[in-house]
Amino acid sequence: MKTKRIRQGFSEYLVIEKENSNDYDEKVICSNQIDALLPCEIRNEEGKECFYYQLSSMHCLEDEMKNLKFTDFCVLLIQAMEELENYLLDLDHVILKPDHIFVNDKKPKLCYSLEYKENIKSQWIEFVETAVDMIAYGDKEDVTKTYGFHIFLKDENPSLIQMKEYLVPMPSVEIPKIELEEEIEPWVEEVFSPPEKEKSKLPWLIPCIAFVPMLGLFSYMIIKIMLQGWLYENVRNAVVLFFAICIDVTCFLSAKMKKGAENSTEEEKKFEVDNYEQETILLSQETTLLSETKYPRLIPENSMYDEIVVDKNKFLFGSAKEQVDFQVAQIGVSRVHMKIEHGEEGYEIVDLNSKNGTYVNDERVAGSGKILKSEDIIRIGLEEFRFVI
User: Can you give the pTM of this predicted structure?
Assistant: First the structure.
């Protein structure tokens, strides 16, 4: 592809010599109806047809990179490419290079050339790699997001929609939690709780009350037999009263035995309840002791990450998600970068032969490691964490 930039009067053009032909694409790009494309026309120069892309009032992205928020500009680029897809243009013909992308009112203007063809997804990866060295490092959040976007492009091979969703995530909708009251209404307890049985004292009181008159009558009949002799009527009444007294005594003894059994059962239940309460207290004490176990935390300076709880004796950090306990998705972070280990002297940070090193309070960690103190600042790549015990 032969390209050159020329100036004619007050106008500046990017000229690309025409080698291939596609009537539909030529008609679309030369109609200048697509706002995302550079204004274009076909001219004849020395017997050869050339595409003339007008650059007047345009600024090259290569010169404007440090004045833009790169990830926001990438969103505008994706929207521009979506517009090209709506016109059925092949995105592989877009020249996605900083020196061929132009900016007008902070909006991208793309160069679409039939003479150029390269896979657009590969172009995106190369474009972001090139931009990493050109963007302004003052905006740390933009730099971190750019590194993450580069890794996302390499690992996921995303579509334009997925790229936009990564750069502009959809806001999460919180579903309100409905808290159920644990207390049971009094009327529910009244309806569903079984009525308590009243303990009756009659079973053993009746035999006790009946015993006294029956014993008096029996004594009267014995005296009557002694005075009148062994008459049939007197003997009969004495025998009946005797058996009645025996039955009464039997009922009295059985009632007392039943009451004693109930008392022993209540004592056993009370003993079991007391033991259960003691076990519950012991369990609650153990739970309290377990809940009081405190792990150190890493508080990221960048709001992109959540607070990290170091809840393992050996906690690994790096860019390889499958090999570490916490992934730091940035260029400059090794696959397994460093670890925080709990030893006899406390928590120690050890660099695992990473390429760019691990720093604590701006001092590089030696191979033997370094004991961490609360409020130490740990840096790997461009990301900083505050260590809190």
Answer: 0.49
Query: Burial letters for 104-115: b for 16+ Cβ neighbours within 10 Å, e otherwise?
Result: eeeebbbbbbbe
> 149-175 pLDDT, tens per residue?
888 898 888 899 999 988 887 655 555
What is the reported pLDDT for 176? 58
Mean pLDDT of 241-260: 80
Q: Give the rounded distance of the alpha carbon of 75 from its chain centre.
A: 26
